[in-house]
Amino acid sequence: MRSTFIIAFRDLNAFFKSPIFYVLTAVFLILFNYIFFNILNFFSFQSMQAAQFQGQMGGMGLNLNDMVVQPALHNMGVILLLMIPLITMRSFSEEKKNKSVNLLLSSPVQLHEIVIGKFLACFLVVATMIALTLISIGLLFYVGEPEFGPVATSYLGMLLMASCYISVGVFASSLTDNQIVAAVMSFGFTLFMWIIGWGAQAAGSDFGELLKYLSLIDHLDPFFKGMLDMGDLGYYISVILFGLFLTHRTLDSNRWR
Amino acid sequence: MISVDGLTKFYGPRQAIKQLTFNVEKGEVVGFLGPNGAGKSTTMNILSCIIPASGGSAKINGYDIFEESLEIKKIIGYLPEIPPLYPDMIVSDYLRFAAGIRSVPKNKIDEAVETALEKCWLKDVKHRIAGRLSKGFQQRVGLAQALIHEPEILILDEPTIGLDPLQIIEIRKLIKELSKDRTIILSSHILPEITQICQRVVIINEGEIAAVDSLEGLTASLRKTERIQLSIRKGQDQAIEILEKIQGVTSVSQNDKGEFQIECELGSNLQDDIARTTLDNKWGLVELKQTAVSLEDVFLKLTTEEAQV
Question: Can you give the pLDDT at residue A46?
Answer without folding.
Answer: 86
